[in-house]
Amino acid sequence: MDQLPIFMNLQGEHCLVVGGNAVAARKAELLKKANADVTLVTRELEGEAYRMVADGYLEWRDATFQRRYLDCVRLVIATTDDEDEARRVYNACIERGIPVNVADVPTMCTFILPGIVDRSPMTIAVSTGARSPVLARLVRRRLESLIPPSYGRLTTLLERFREKAKRCIEGVDNRQRFWEAVIEGPIGNMAMAGREKQAAAALDERLENRITEPDTGEVYLIGAGPGAVDLLTNQAQRLLSAADIVVYDRLVSPAIVDLARREAERIYVGKTAGQHALDQQAISQLLVDKARQGCRVARLKGGDPFIFGRGGEELEAIVQADIDFQIAPGVTAASGCASYAGIPLTHRDHAHSVRFITGHRHNGLLQLPWFDLARCSDTLVFYMGLGSLPEICSGLVDHGREPTTPAVVVEQGTTANQRVIRATLADLDQQVADVRPPALLIVGEVARLSRRFAWFAGDREQSAFMPGYCIDGRGPHDPTQATIGRHDDEDSVTTV
Ligand code: SAH
């Protein structure tokens, strides 16, 4: 370690920024955030620095740097372009033992300004020892997205009870165990979800009863998205990596299950060959039992748990058992597949709204509000519709939708195996014989745009449509390319 990271208390301390450019304004702002008393020393004030002085936010000395300005000064940052002035600032500070940072000149810095993730009162600082400010910035951005602003709320709560914990719980080890259980358990999650009052009450009760052991468990209902790992939300990742047990379905991609801790127990409850590994009631019971044993249970579901995901049924059991829970939404198949197939679901020139419909047969029957679906101008998205696809297409046409209405099937959307089959209601069913689940059917004028807006090609689709793809967005125009079905440019099915 080249430098020791420390956090400096500058409350009410006098600090100088030598310079009046945009960098000076940024550094001054930073010092003000730490409640320092800041003066700019410069003959010329530019843009933001000028505004800050005009607003009375900063003091300004209209002068070049003088040694005597350092009286009573605690810290100095120089951003001046004048090398000679920068050197004078540095030498004078060294002489007086005042911490100094000359921007972009590592040899004239006695301290470094790190990249900062501000989750006040929590602050995270990142430094590469001035070797690569850009790398520090990138790492900082990653941390920003990993550590939500709600950590600030959590920190404030923990601070409030710190003294009381010292009084109630004896021994450093016990206190450490206590705080870990609080931060990683339901109390921490409650605070981060904005329920600070409830969290404070629960924390107080724990302290009064001197409970240092982890709480009863929790269940995290997590949407794993349609397949691509990078569609997982940060919230989902955070909860998944905290879990002791992961209960997952068939549609959850293995790469996402892999993100759980190595020691976490993994339980598969998906369907195989038409059979549930566990029926719905048994799954709900499993979640309840494991949470009661004190485990943090991640219930991973494909897409979004509340969209054809039976999330509501499982929650019912969890609530009834009075178990704490959190819900992390996921990218539902309709959003994921539409984006990855280039279909703006509610493009206002073509659709007023979008409907998510299940094409699943109930007791062998497909009961849908046909007239309504056929006559409306909505985009229709059918989940679980592969087995009923011919019936859905003909049902819509029989009840009044134009046979030429664009209809697209997205197979294994967002994954490397994605394939998009573009057709119309009249001819789609001839193209889907080899399609394997999961697959989504999107019907409506917006689906016509799928060729124009195509951008993602799974490994299987690549060979089918990339050769003719032209960068101006008009889509494939290779005359040798095989097309089946309708032969106008926009709607033809592109298969090999
Ligand atoms: N909760 C899930 C849906 C579960 S129902 C969600 O929000 O997405 C299962 C149906 O979702 C499948 O039959 C299929 O129609 C659709 N589906 C899920 N993932 C898909 C994917 N990657 N590609 C295409 N369709 C998908």
Automatic annotation (TrEMBL):
Biological processes, Gene Ontology terms: cobalamin biosynthetic process; methylation; siroheme biosynthetic process
Active site: 249, 271
Metabolic or biological pathway: Porphyrin-containing compound metabolism; siroheme biosynthesis; precorrin-2 from uroporphyrinogen III: step 1/1; Porphyrin-containing compound metabolism; siroheme biosynthesis; sirohydrochlorin from precorrin-2: step 1/1; Cofactor biosynthesis; adenosylcobalamin biosynthesis; sirohydrochlorin from precorrin-2: step 1/1; Cofactor biosynthesis; adenosylcobalamin biosynthesis; precorrin-2 from uroporphyrinogen III: step 1/1
Domain Tetrapyrrole methylase: 219-428
Sites where the protein binds NAD(+): 22-23, 43-44
PROSITE patterns for the chain: SUMT_2
All residue ranges annotated as the Sirohaem synthase dimerisation domain in the record: 150-207
Molecular function GO labels: NAD binding; precorrin-2 dehydrogenase activity; sirohydrochlorin ferrochelatase activity; uroporphyrin-III C-methyltransferase activity
Region (Uroporphyrinogen-III C-methyltransferase) residue spans: 217-496
Disordered: annotated span: 476-496
Catalytic activity entry: uroporphyrinogen III + 2 S-adenosyl-L-methionine = precorrin-2 + 2 S-adenosyl-L-homocysteine + H(+); precorrin-2 + NAD(+) = sirohydrochlorin + NADH + 2 H(+); siroheme + 2 H(+) = sirohydrochlorin + Fe(2+)
Statement: the UniProt record of this protein carries the keyword Methyltransferase: yes
Binding site for S-adenosyl-L-methionine: 226, 302-304, 307, 332-333, 384, 413
Ranges of residues in domain Siroheme synthase central: 119-145
Region of interest: Precorrin-2 dehydrogenase / sirohydrochlorin ferrochelatase: 1-203
SUPFAM superfamilies: NAD(P)-binding Rossmann-fold domains, Siroheme synthase middle domains-like, Tetrapyrrole methylase
Signal peptide region: none
Entry's EC annotation: 2.1.1.107, 1.3.1.76, 4.99.1.4
Family annotation (Pfam families): CysG_dimeriser (PF10414), NAD_binding_7 (PF13241), Sirohm_synth_M (PF14824), TP_methylase (PF00590)
Keywords: Cobalamin biosynthesis, Lyase, Methyltransferase, Multifunctional enzyme, NAD, Oxidoreductase, Porphyrin biosynthesis, S-adenosyl-L-methionine, Transferase
Protein family per UniProt: Belongs to the precorrin methyltransferase family.
Function comment: Then it catalyzes the NAD-dependent ring dehydrogenation of precorrin-2 to yield sirohydrochlorin. Finally, it catalyzes the ferrochelation of sirohydrochlorin to yield siroheme.
Record protein name field: Siroheme synthase
